[in-house]
Design a protein that fits this description.
The chain is α/β, with parallel strands linked by helices. The chain folds into 2 domains: 310 residues, TIM Barrel (Alpha-Beta Barrel); 37 residues, no CATH class. The strands form 4 sheets. A 7-stranded parallel beta sheet has the order 3-8-9-12-13-14-15, with helices on both faces. The protein has a 4-stranded antiparallel beta sheet with strand order 4-5-6-7, with helices on one face. The longest helix is centred in the middle third of the chain and has 23 residues. It starts with a helix and ends with a helix.
């Protein structure tokens, strides 16, 4: 059985007896540690761990087109200040993995939106020259095939910053709605471009948001219901027209206030259900929304730092969901530098040996 077939059977409640062994990624500092602990320098992590990717994407360019010209404004041995391809001026630390310090934005107020809207229109140049090769490789991979649907809220947050976006949603909610709807329309156009070249539907369409923190969402439920949910419903309808029955999102943080609204709008796969200090329970989501609420993730990555006993306990408490289906175990974000190589190998081996 290929990983794709196993994945399909789990997510569509067919017959399965194990979990796929998936590796998302590690932080650069984690990789440095692992190489000090015995991983060969330059080794491909998934090959080294005999693990599969957590998602296998087919993509076209759904971002700003044309992008802004990138320009370095200041550079020292410790940091670089630059304007990036999204028009954001940021300070990036050299040799450190951290979120940049965002200094200024090209999209700050409602009047700036037209400049960005012009860069979010369909265009032949968005279709990569290697799209057909991407599709051929996806079919041959033996992996579940995922169609990229971009980001309706997370990109706006990146382009504007949290403060500017918050004021815009309050002062000009209809402009925010137009932003979300414009990206959704472009996404639907992109789905058309890919699906007219595919001989059979992908296993899932999937987008990225990261619009929640430890205290909940950066977009209020009321704004979401009025302006974001209809855009997701539009993407859901487009996916369904091509026989794509799974629509997923990647959102870190505490998603509780938005999860039901996403679900009502047609999203039925959630990754990664980050555990964090708010300690959500994936089983509660399943009990509340039923088996159509599917999950990839749900394993507290911080338990990997603690050793075999903690890893075993974390796996044990997710066993009921694994056995039920519609749930694929995966650490809830990148593997942290506090995780030694032996602990991570132990986790993967435990998943590899699971049988139901």
């Amino acid at each position: 059985m290929t990983t794709q077939t196993l994945w399909q059977n789990i997510m569509n409640y067919g017959s399965f007896d194990r979990m796929p062994v998936l590796h998302w990624a590690s932080w650069p500092e984690t990789r440095i540690r692992w190489e000090q602990e015995g991983m060969p320098a330059g080794a491909d992590e998934r090959t080294y761990f005999s693990a599969d990717p957590h998602l296998y994407f087919i993509r076209i360019n759904l971002g700003l087109y044309p992008a802004f010209d990138e320009k370095v404004l200041e550079e020292t041995a410790e940091y670089r200040i630059l304007r990036d391809a999204e028009g954001v001026i940021q300070k990036v630390w050299i040799g450190k993995s951290s979120i940049p310090h965002y200094i200024d934005y090209s999209l700050k107020v409602a009047a700036d939106w037209d400049t960005y809207k012009k860069r979010l229109q369909p265009a032949p140049g968005r279709i990569p020259a290697n799209l057909d090769e991407q599709i051929i490789s996806a079919y041959a991979s033996g992996q579940p095939i995922t169609l990229d649907t971009g980001s309706l809220m997370g990109w706006i947050r990146n382009w504007m910053g949290i403060e500017n976006m918050s004021f815009l949603m309050y002062d000009h909610p209809d402009i925010y709605g137009d932003m979300v709807n414009t990206i959704a329309d472009l996404t639907c156009w992109g789905i058309d471009q890919i699906m007219t070249r595919m001989k059979s539907p992908p296993d899932m369409a999937f987008g990225w948001e990261d619009i929640c923190g430890k205290n909940g969402p950066l977009v209020s439920p009321s704004i979401f219901i009025k302006h974001v949910a209809p855009a997701y419903a539009k993407i859901r309808q487009k996916c369904s027209s091509y026989g794509i029955n799974l629509l997923g999102i990647d959102c870190d943080g505490d998603i509780e206030q938005l999860a039901g609204h996403w679900f009502d709008a047609g999203v039925n796969v959630f990754l990664p259900i980050e555990i964090g200090s708010w300690n959500p329970d994936p089983m509660i989501y399943r009990k509340k929304y039923g088996r159509d609420f599917r999950i990839i993730g749900g394993f507290n990555k911080m338990e990997l730092e603690k050793g075999p006993a903690a890893i075993d306990a974390e796996i044990e408490r997710r066993l009921p969901l694994m056995k039920d289906g519609g749930f694929i175990l995966l650490p809830d974000h990148l593997i942290t530098p506090g995780t030694c190589l032996d602990n991570y190998k132990y986790y993967l081996d435990r998943v590899r040996c699971l049988r139901f």
